[in-house]
Amino acid sequence: MADLSIRPASECRFDAVSLGEVMLRLDPGEGRIRTARSFRAWEGGGEYNVARGLRRAFGLRGAIVTALTDNEIGRLVEDFILTGGLDTSFIRWVPYDGIGRSVRNGLNFTERGFGVRGAVGVSDRGHTAASQLRPGNVDWDHLFGDLGVRWLHTGGIFAALSESAAETVIEAVTAAKRHGTVVSYDLNYRPSLWKAIGGQAKAREVNREIARHIDVMIGNEEDFTASLGFEVEGVDENLSALDADKFAAMIEKAAAGYPNFKVIATTMRTVRSASINDWGAIAWSPSTGVVQATHRERLEILDRVGGGDSFASGLIYGLLEGEPLQTAVEYGAAHGALAMTTPGDTTMVTKAEVLKLAGGGGARVDR
User: Fold this and answer.
1) Which residue, among 316, 302, 356, has the nearest Cα to 334 in the 3D structure?
2) 320: left (phi over 0), alpha (psi -120 to 50) or beta
């Protein structure tokens, strides 16, 4: 795409690297957390899911930069990461103190929801190893310079975990820019992560500083309002009903406020029930203006968690492949739609399925 300058694959060991926390997801399946007697274990994390999607769905070379406590739970998470195909060389292992008094691994209990019962996420991630990452822990010049990385992805979930996590994001994105690595950021505003450390005002302070270093900014309408302060007149609290024209006005404000943005992208979701959503996406670049993906009304959903991350990985794949923005946003919307048909945070989708759906294919049986 003309607006982005992406390093050649031949110069880089990795196509994509993510910076963020990887948690153990515990899923009661069709039941409730409060009455469960068994849980299925997965791994997941807003930033991690993107790199994993790029590796597993699209076959690109990826790695995760994170930290884990060196105990059996941390090694279980590592095993999931290895299954996901990401390089684990940049995991910082932190000694365990025996009971988690000073450092631990994050847990995320997640109900999928159904019908009128919405999805529920209960995070248990205070004092985690990833939240204690700080500037100086990672040799970014070695990663981006000596080894080479085409694309770095990180986001607002990791930045919200601690002051040092936000500082680590700044260190990472500025190093990436020094070495010509494209940087994407998903605002991913979560009120629960910010409420004890200053709320929306703190979220805006942190994200506005980070935004100055970002090439590709991703977020939904609530993210742009809560994290960056770009609001559109005439929008009530039902943010999911925001239409594309109104969001285009918000994009124009964001582009004017941050001329470093080369691409701005968002999913468009109207929640009819936990199991039925309208789903689509739009994106913008200076050379194309606003483009819109196929809008899928009444999309049936099994597990919505991770749908936005799969949108991001599909979009990034298209951009890394040099596709036009219209094609990239179609890949993103299709990958997100497909990923929400399977359980867990992470994708179980193939590139062929994404390309088929993005090209107008349906759900007829493949024989």
Assistant:
1) 356
2) alpha
Name the domain count of the chain.
1
Is 157 within a domain?
yes
Residue 232 belongs to a domain: yes
Q: Is the pTM of this model over 0.90?
A: yes
Q: Which residues contact 25 (CB under 8 A, 6 or more apart)?
A: 41, 42, 43, 44, 108, 109, 110, 344, 345
Classify residue 139 as left (phi > 0), alpha (psi -120 to 50) or beta. beta
Q: Rounded CA gap, 160 and 178, in Å? A: 24
Name 193's Cβ contacts closer than 8 Å, sequence gap at least 6.
123, 157, 160, 161
Residue 93 counted as domain residue:
yes
- Write the pLDDT tens digit of every residue in 85-105: 999 999 999 999 999 999 999
Q: Which residues have a Cβ under 8 Å from the Cβ of 213 and sit 6 or more positions away? A: 170, 173, 174, 177, 183, 260
Q: 138 in helix, strand or coil?
A: coil
In a domain? residue 5: no
Q: Which residues is 267 bridged to in the sheet? A: 281
- What is the C-alpha radius of gyration for the chain, rounded to an integer number of angstroms? 19
Question: Could you tell me the residue range of the domain that residue 98 belongs to?
Answer: 13-358
Cα–Cα distance measured from residue 54 to residue 51, given in angstroms and rounded to the nearest whole number: 5
> Checking DSSP bridges between strand 296-300 and strand 276-285, what pairing results, if any?
antiparallel
Which pLDDT score is estimated for 243?
66
Amino acid at 323: E
What average pLDDT does the structure give for the chain? Answer: 93
For 157-173, how does the pLDDT look when each residue is reduced to its tens digit (9 = 90+)?
999 999 999 999 999 99
Bridge partners for 288 per DSSP: none
252 contacts: CB under 8 Å, gap ≥ 6: none
Per-residue confidence at 367, pLDDT binned at 50, 70, 90? low
Q: What CATH number is attached to the domain comprising 331?
A: 3.40.1190.20
Please report the pLDDT score of residue 240 as a whole number: 47
CA 109 to CA 252: how far, in whole Å? Answer: 37
pLDDT digits (tens, 9 = 90+) for 14-62: 999 999 999 999 999 999 999 999 999 999 999 999 999 999 999 999 9
Supply the pLDDT for residue 65: 98
